[in-house]
Amino acid sequence: MSTTILHPLDDPTANPFAIAREAAAQIAEKTGVEHHDIALTLGSGWAKAADLIGETTATIPATEIIGFSKPVLEGHVGTLRSLLLPNGKRALVIGARTHYYENHGVRRVVHSVRTAAATGASTMILTNGAGGIRESWKPGTPVLISDHINLTANSPLEGATFIDLTDLYSTRLRDLARAVDPSLDEGVYCQFRGPHYETPAEVQMAKAIGGHIVGMSTALEAIAAREAGMEILGMSLITNLAAGIQKTPLSHTEVIEAGRNAEAVIGALLAKIVELI
Ligand code: HPA
């Protein structure tokens, strides 16, 4: 007889906020840092930022913390890092993202955000690699997320939890980012389920309904971050033009490569932005 160990967040009677608090307590114990001020989820292409933002004082494999899942993807680093910033603040860097397309449920997708909030972080920086709908955005262009369209037909909120999503991606933080780089463009992020890339027709739909960026993460996390009362900064690295906008087929290898080529520049940009928060 084989026994399967239930993931704590897959138990429908579990309280995801209690598990996030437990995760935060484990992080405090393993890092020796009681309180983090800022949290960053670093998606494709953004990992370098961690080295530039501050001094790493602790690195923990994410799977040692309750509620975190094994990363499925090469190019996604499964660690949590605690950083000491030059201004004395503490940042928690989440290099372990559970994507909605992994089919583990929304609770697992937003666990890192809820844990970040439970560590005390009041700012959540969400980054990703994504497809661009605007033709002027060449691969390697960082773009601020101004708003999102959630095409997953799902929500991390449970029950009749009515949360306002106006100014979800903080105008204040976007202004601050533009103070670092006035050339930063912004756009509306459409979260598709994935893991397939969009069809050209879906990209045209996204464009018609007001989208500028297509990807497979971030929107559900942003909703959970807002529920937790955090201020949110969202940034996409355009790794490719979206399907049908670019004339050649999309490939995951190209996406990873575009991320790699841009990482020094966008890492430095993000580090400068974090300095101002
Ligand atoms: N679509 C969805 N997700 C992505 C893309 C894309 O074109 N590029 C990188 N992640």
Task: Write structural notes for this entry.
The protein has 277 residues and is α/β, with parallel strands linked by helices. The protein has one domain: Nucleoside phosphorylase domain (Rossmann fold), CATH 3.40.50. It contains 7 helices and 9 strands, in the order H-E-H-E-E-E-H-E-E-H-E-H-E-H-E-H. The chain has helices at residues 16-31, 49-53, 106-118, 171-180, 200-208, 219-227, 252-276, and strands at 38-41, 55-61, 79-84, 90-94, 123-132, 141-150, 185-191, 213-215, 231-241. A 5-stranded mixed barrel has the order 5-8-7-6-9, surrounded by 4 helices. Helix 1 (16-31) packs across helix 3, helix 3 packs across helix 6 (219-227) and helix 4 (171-180) packs across helix 7 (252-276). It is globular and about 50 Å long. The mean pLDDT is 94. Hypoxanthine (HPA) is lined by residues 129-131, 197-198, 214-216, 239-240, 242, 250, 255.
